[in-house]
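Support reply, case 0932

Customer input (verbatim):
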Amino acid sequence: MSEDTTERKTKEKSRSDENVIYVGQKPPMNYVLAVITQFNSGSDEVIIKARGRAISTAVDAAEITRNRFFKDAELKEIKISTRNTKYLTVCFFNFIMFYLLLEPVFEN
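Our regenerated output:
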């Protein structure tokens, strides 16, 4: 019974990681393309994660996506956190964007 439960939790965790985009050193348009791909593949929610210097790239990617490609997309949640290590403090940033796809209504 416990094996089945752990298997379900593992599947749920892997499903939730599919819509996460980790931002690094690439140009913002690479991450915009990743967000567009996630929305077009059927995801209704995309999480953009960044830390440190990549936070500005993540903000740029989220705003380019919202203003140019998915004007109906909204920011559901923004999480900001910091983690202190022995030598430095690192900031973490999460955007949760969602896009509600409206289906056309046909009148007869």
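We compared this against your earlier run and they match. Two observations from our side: The CA atoms of residues 19 and 100 lie 15 Å apart. Residues 18-98 form a domain with the Translation Initiation Factor IF3 fold (CATH 3.30.110.20). Please reopen the case if you see a mismatch on your end.
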